[in-house]
Design a protein that fits this description.
There is one protein chain. This protein has helices spanning 8-32, 36-39, 63-79, 164-172, 177-205, 207-229, 285-299, 340-351, 419-425, 535-543, and strands spanning 44-50, 55-58, 88-91, 103-112, 115-125, 154-158, 161-162, 235-245, 251-262, 265-269, 314-317, 367-374, 381-385, 428-435, 451-457, 463-469, 489-493, 500-501, 505-511, 516-520. The model is unreliable at 552-556 (pLDDT under 50). It is built from 10 helices and 20 strands. Strand 6 (154-158) and strand 7 form a beta hairpin. It starts with 7 loop residues before the first helix and ends in a 13-residue tail after the last helix. Helices cover 27% and strands 23% of the residues. The protein is of the alpha+beta class. Helix 1 (8-32) runs antiparallel to helix 5. The radius of gyration is 23 Å and the shape is globular. The strands form 4 sheets. Strands 2-1-5-4-3-6-7 form a 7-stranded antiparallel beta sheet. The chain has a 5-stranded antiparallel beta sheet with strand order 14-15-20-17-18.
Length: 556
């Protein structure tokens, strides 16, 4: 059957309708999810994929989530040959197309005229997914089974009927079954909302027209992306970035990017990266692809739809057994943050030689802490994830970096949420939360600032903390002559004791009532030589208290 011809207006209408559908799905998630990590920090993403596992549309949430979804969709397609209306498929396993175990993904099939055409997809980070440590991140893990429950593609609903036995089993394996059930219900509801909105679009325009328009949208995105890449300098370029450590004996783990640009094609080869680790700093295959896709997407035009069409100029090469693509069974929970950030950094450093007018300096790295304790106001247990004190973003040819915007893998998609709401929900007091002067890298354009946070725990019993992250040794990378930022600095202050320096990868941190978590988060990297910074900009920074007179953005 010949597909109907699609004019540019119809293509544009469908493109914007698809975008509005995934955006509405995100609003539904925000308003119906239970845990703070979702309804405040917004650690979720929405997308539409087709039955060929192509990314059709995504909402502006967490890029590292969405870049991995085609691989998850491919795993679902390979697992289930028979899918009917009312089915809901669930998965999280990194070795079945997932990124890491906390990111649970819901798939709802979309049919028209009895034919399955698309998937409505929601990926959301759960506050707990079982395993040896609360909050899923386990710095002591040497195998994936110590990180949480693994879910290959399974049918949670069959033709509209929920599998209560499976749901009960999953909830039983999390430390907060109430939130898990509520968040999962919100995810399923948001995915069904996407299904209903697509059905309405089919009814208005015809499924055959929508299918043809989707092909036109993908083709147009490819043309736009290739038109940009074609203007870049041809050649082979190299970049590298380093993880601080693996939480054990290895230091300065190297991610290497060899980027070859010819005409309108880009090949990114990560094969020369260091060998895999026996800890959770490894990346899964899907997550590695997502990180490369992020780097590429950041450099093409912002108005180009970020779908599979826009990614056709890009080829990714990697070697299994390296830090960017671990062998099955190894732990990978940190991967969506690290080495994702370092993969992006290495690729963009390389492409600075090809498109210097489009690259940006390094964004801050993720250093999170998860705390488990009892709330004395309610008598109930809690798990709280630190999303506050976000690091700064890197500067670019367009100007200074954004302050407290977050990491490269989320580019502002993750929010630190309301301090007042956090204090109301948890036994916490934010004594200080403000920009940290001198934390951004110096340059023609200054890196965004990190944050100074003093957080007091108002518990009545000891709580337990785990850390997971990077960036106490390496700051955010400067670009094209710009300076690196200051690194992170975290301490636990206890009455009558010397301050305790917190490492980025440790478990079993005892937090006593009244203890204070002192966070000094990294800023972003600087762009361009510092001597080119306008005197008026330096004076403005000084007057606003962002940079003090003695350091020009680089002192501790």
């Amino acid at each position: 059957m010949t597909s109907p011809a699609v004019d540019p207006i119809t293509r544009s209408v469908v493109q914007h309708r698809l975008s509005s559908i995934v955006t509405e799905m995100g609003e539904a998630m925000l308003r119906t999810s239970y845990s703070q990590i979702l309804n405040s920090s917004r650690d979720f993403s929405l997308a539409l994929c087709d039955v060929d596992a192509r990314l059709i549309a995504q909402a502006d949430h967490i890029p590292v989530h969405v870049g991995a979804l085609p691989w998850a969709t491919r795993a679902v397609e390979e697992r289930f040959k028979e899918v009917v209306p009312g089915d809901v498929i669930l998965m999280n396993d990194p070795y079945h197309g997932g990124s890491h175990l906390p990111d649970v993904t819901v798939f709802v099939p979309i049919f028209a005229g009895g034919k399955r055409l698309f998937w409505s997809i929601v990926r959301a980070h759960q506050s707990d997914i079982g395993g040896a440590t609360h909050g899923a991140y386990n710095p002591d893990a040497t195998e994936i089974w110590q990180e949480g429950i693994r879910i290959p593609p399974i049918k949670l609903y069959e033709a509209g009927r929920v599998r209560d036995d499976i749901l009960d089993m999953l909830a039983l394996n999390t430390r907060n079954a109430h939130d898990f059930r509520g968040d999962l219900a919100a995810m399923i509801g948001a995915a069904h909302l996407g299904e209903r909105r697509m059905a309405k679009l089919f009814a208005e325009m015809g499924a055959d027209v929508v299918e043809a328009a989707v092909e036109a949208v993908l083709d147009a995105a490819e043309q736009q992306a290739r038109a940009v890449v074609a203007t870049w300098k041809d050649g082979t370029f190299y970049g590298e970035a380093f993880l601080d450590d693996d939480g054990r004996d290895r230091k300065n783990i190297r991610i290497s990017a060899k980027v070859t640009k010819r005409g309108s094609d880009i090949e990114v080869d990560l094969s020369d990266s260091d060998p895999q680790a026996q800890s959770f700093v490894n990346s899964s295959h899907a997550n590695m692809h997502a990180a490369v896709v992020m780097a590429f997407a950041y450099l093409i035009d912002p108005d180009t739809p970020k779908n599979s069409g826009a990614l056709r100029p890009l080829k990714v090469v990697a070697k299994q057994g390296t830090i960017v693509w671990a062998d099955p069974g190894l732990p990978v929970t940190l991967c969506t943050s690290h080495p994702s950030n370092e993969i992006v950094e290495a690729v963009i450093k390389a492409l600075a030689g090809s498109c210097p007018d489009r690259v940006m300096a390094g964004w801050g790295r993720r250093f999170r802490i998860a705390v488990k304790g009892e709330n004395p106001r309610t008598g109930r247990g809690f798990i709280w994830h630190l999303f506050h004190a976000r690091p700064g973003g890197g500067a670019s040819p367009g100007g200074d970096g954004w302050s407290s915007i977050g990491e490269w893998h989320s580019v502002g998609g993750l929010k630190f949420g309301s301090i007042e709401v956090a204090e109301a929900r948890f036994p916490l007091h934010f004594r200080r939360h403000e920009f940290l002067e001198n934390s951004g890298g110096d340059g023609q354009y200054r890196g965004g600032l990190g944050v100074a946070l003093d957080l007091v725990f108002e518990t009545e019993k000891p709580a337990l903390g785990n850390t997971a992250g990077e960036g106490t040794h390496h700051g955010s990378a400067g670009m094209l002559g710009g300076k690196d930022s200051k690194p992170h600095h975290y301490r636990l202050i206890s009455q009558g004791k010397a301050p305790r320096e917190l490492r980025t990868k440790e478990t079993g941190i005892v937090i006593m009532p009244g203890d204070c978590l002192e966070v000094r988060s990294a800023g972003g990297g600087g762009f361009g030589p510092p001597e080119k910074r306008a005197p008026a900009a330096r004076e403005r920074d000084r007057l606003q208290g962002l940079v003090t007179d003695d350091v020009k953005g680089l002192s501790r």
